Amino acid sequence: MSTMMIVIIISIIVVLAVLALSILTVNKGYSYKHTIDPPEDTTLQEKDDQK
């Protein structure tokens, strides 16, 4: 095998590894369950009255 063939094979392996890690990272991000805080029960008028 020539040196050029070895460089091409290693380059393809690196590209495939980066692609696989990128896909895994995106999938993990999309599967994350986001939560939000529950809304407060007090209204603005009640807050003003408490001051």
From TrEMBL:
InterPro entries: YtzI-like (IPR047753). Residues 32-51 are annotated as: Disordered. Keywords: Membrane, Receptor, Transmembrane, Transmembrane helix. The chain crosses the membrane at residues 6-26. It comes from the Bacteria. This is Tumour necrosis factor receptor superfamily member 19. It comes from Domibacillus enclensis. The lineage of its organism: Bacteria, Bacillati, Bacillota, Bacilli, Bacillales.
